[in-house]
Amino acid sequence: MTGYLIVAVIVLVFVVIFQIAKASEYVSVLKGEKKAKAQSNRVNGFLMIAFLILGLIGVYYCNDLLKGRILQESASKEGEGIDRLLYITIAITGAVFFVTQILLFWFAFKYQESPKRKAFYFPHNNKLELLWTAVPAIVLTVLVVMGLMHWFRITGEAPKDALVVEVTGKQFGWIFRYPGKDDVLGKKYFRNIDPANNSLGLTWEDKATQDDIVTEQTMYVIKNRPVQLIIGSRDVIHDVGLPHFRLKMDAVPGIPTTMWFTPKYTTEEMKKTTGNPNFQYEIACDQMCGNGHYSMKGIIQVVTAEEYNAWLAKQKPQYYVAFPDKEPVNKMQPISDSVKATAALVAR
Ligand SMILES: [Cu+2]
């Protein structure tokens, strides 16, 4: 019943619109058709100009409103190249935007139908076709090549002194692994994954894993020292999005991806320059990865070399977390207890 009613209402609305259109047509005939057409052309011409002016004011207003609000300057040296590319792209496309939009609306106003003018028949021009195909093609090629050069740089080999951190995405969080004293990330195998004490599935038989340090949610890196991320995923595709450093890279299960960057400012320095005491460098997952996607926030703590070493000294290799009895300190425990007992005896 409701369905019929809706159909009836739609049909009636159409009938009403049709009748109004017909009535206005009769009115224009009575007025003199040509006059009505010329008048509506004029109204449309002025509307075009109004749209152009209001639109440009709107563009200026939005630009002014958002200036400096979205992000501060790049916090990584490599991000400066991205920013430069963005500004060049905006300058080129912006110039084209203003010229084409102004001409589009101005011409619609200026060259509206007039009894004093006859339209010029201009079907084709090879030179023009060539010009407006070749110029954008060359400009776009230059932009793409500049982008590619940058891409090859940040995904290519990292500087020799780079700190290496493995980043693994999971539903819904980030796991970080540092290679430990041997500077080698040991082997891992997904069947070894154990949520209790082996979240990455490290292969303990491989000696290189035994000093690897595993942390979650917060990654520590050093100011002015390049850091290479070796990125992977434990389940679905995630993405390491680093807006402050102007970088992002997919985290794909089974296919490691890499990128490197050099942080320019410590978190503390950023707190001062942004005037935000709660400032944090954020890792935002940039892939829709499931119902907890929104909560997949990681933190990058950029610190000085001394602070980093102090932090690192406090970290325990994951091997000892999984096997506390293997830890040298714990192995010593019975001896020190016996020493204490002997000392107590002697004291008596
Ligand atoms: Cu994710």
Record keyword descriptors for this entry.
348 residues; alpha+beta; five-stranded mixed beta sheet; 8 helices; 49% helix; binds copper (II) ion
Describe this structure in words.
It is built from eight helices and ten strands. The protein is an alpha+beta fold. A hairpin with a 4-residue loop joins β6 and β7. α3 runs antiparallel to α4. Bound molecules: copper (II) ion (CU). The site of copper (II) ion (CU) has 7 residues, from loops.
Give the neighbour order of strands across the main sheet: 3-2-1-5-8
Number of strands: 10
**What can be said about the biggest beta sheet?**
5 strands, mixed
Question: How far apart lie the N and C ends?
Answer: 100 Å
Strand content: 15-25%
Q: Mean pLDDT across all residues, rounded?
A: 86
Count of helices? 8
Q: Spell out the helices and strands N to C.
A: HHHHEEEEEEEEHEEHHH
Low-confidence stretches: none
Helix content range: 40-55%
Structural class comes to: alpha+beta
Layout: helices, strands, pairs:
Elements: H1 2-31, H2 33-66, H3 77-110, H4 126-155, E1 163-170, E2 173-178, E3 213-216, E4 218-222, E5 227-233, E6 238-242, E7 247-251, E8 257-261, H5 267-274, E9 281-285, E10 297-303, H6 305-314, H7 318-322, H8 328-347
Parallel strand pairs: 1-5, 4-10
Antiparallel strand pairs: 1-2, 2-3, 5-8, 6-7, 6-9, 9-10
Helix pairs in contact: 1-2, 2-3, 3-4
The structure holds copper (II) ion.
Copper (II) ion is lined by residues 169, 238, 285, 287, 289, 293, 296.
